[in-house]
Amino acid sequence: MTTLLPKRRLNILLIALLAAGLGMSLPVEAERLKDLATIQGVRSNQLIGYSLVVGLDGTGDQTTQTPFTVQSLISMLQGMGVTLPQGTNLQLKNVAAVMVTATLPPFAQPGQALDVTVSSMGNAKSLRGGTLLMTPLKGADNQVYAMAQGNLVVGGVGASANGSQTQINHLGVGRISAGATVERAVPVALNQGTGINLELKDSDFSTASKVVDAINQRFGTGTAAAQDGRVIRVNAPADSSRVSFLAALESINVNPAESSAKVILNARTGSVVMNRSVSLEDCAVSHGNLSVVINTAPVISQPGALSGGQTVSTARSEISIEKEPGKVLKLDGGASLSDVIKALNAIGATPQDLLAILQAMKSAGALRAELEVI
Questions:
Q1: For residue 285, what are the CA distances in angstroms to 4, 41, 290, 340?
Q2: Contact 46, 103 (CB under 8 A)
Q3: What is annotated about its quaternary structure and interactions (predicted)?
């Protein structure tokens, strides 16, 4: 019988989110402001370059199928004063055309070393043992910000698994630690103007309001003001004390607002992740030989005679899941999504079954959460 989730994975997911599924309210722990927001303008930049890897042990590009490798080699040799005879047919096996990528961190200065990743462009079998030739790394403005060169390391080659030799990675990708040197800095206007802008990593008006309150409580009223659900304007000193001000600003603890209800489903593996805001309404879903029914019935609690108490009426939900006629699985005590998932897993539903049922609940308005399928 096909199961929806492996038992171990289901246990990990549902234990971690048990309070979420059962509708329990847990206190939101404070987080540092540096974990919730970034400073506008302080960002990394992507760099890219094209070059050749040489010194391969016969595992390079097949030049008959990758003419750009030959053209690049001829152009490089001409730049070094080497002219090949007209009509020379190069049969290269130790050369591969590659793309080189790196990330330029904020405040990087000339002379600083960067890690680079080298990826094969052609049909090279392996980049192991190769050497990257000097490569200009350019930014989005087509300016050179770093130069890369060095010996490649292809990690995990020939690793042993279960007593047998196996390749556990792509041999067409290698890495050079500290393989690039920064040649040009990207200016950051951090000390200009009368203030800075903080950008929340996730837009939320409630969290933005709480961040403003925490900053004003720490530095005084009027220090911060929210411009929208993401950007917060902060008045910061314009002199050399701005760095120490930002250090203190990043260390402020903020209790973020509770995130919106969300369910994430991996349709390939059947993995389900949800937060504690997810709730279900009454509904009935029929999918193939599966039927899911969620009902809410009033439960009346009446006090004893002469006790002086009052009659209390509360709502109680029941979940009924039927796979075959006459075989009904009932869960009492609360209609939570985690209970539905566990019950569907118990009767052998597939990831496709779960996806169809959740989408049907969402369309009917019974699933009070955003459904994201990855």
A1: 18, 49, 8, 12
A2: yes
A3: The basal body constitutes a major portion of the flagellar organelle and consists of four rings (L,P,S, and M) mounted on a central rod.
The token duo for 215 is 């900053």
Q: Are 331 and 222 in contact (CB under 8 A)?
A: no
Q: Give the percent of the chain with pLDDT over 90.
A: 37
* Residue 40 forms part of a structural domain: no
Q: How many residues does the chain have?
A: 374
Q: Cα torsion for 278, 282, 7, 11, to the nearest 10°?
A: 40
Judgement on whether residues 95 and 217 belong to the same structural domain of the protein: no
Please count the other Cβ atoms lying within 10 Å of the Cβ belonging to residue 328.
12
Cα Rg of the chain, angstroms: 30
Alpha-carbon distance of 258 to 207, in angstroms, equals: 8
Nearest alpha carbon to residue 278 among 297, 262, 291, 294: 262
Residue 265 pairs in a beta bridge with: 272, 373
Q: How far apart are CA 274 and CA 77, in angstroms?
A: 58
**Tens digits of residue pLDDT in 15-52:** 343 334 434 444 457 899 999 999 998 889 999 999 99
Nearest-angstrom CA–CA distance, 33 and 41: 17
Range 332-343 average pLDDT: 66
What range does the domain containing 107 cover? 45-182
* 16/50 same-domain check: no
Instruction: Look at the chain and report how many structural domains it folds into.
Output: 3
Neighbours of 175 (CB within 10 A): 16
How far apart (Å, rounded) are the C-alpha atoms in residues 344 and 285?
13
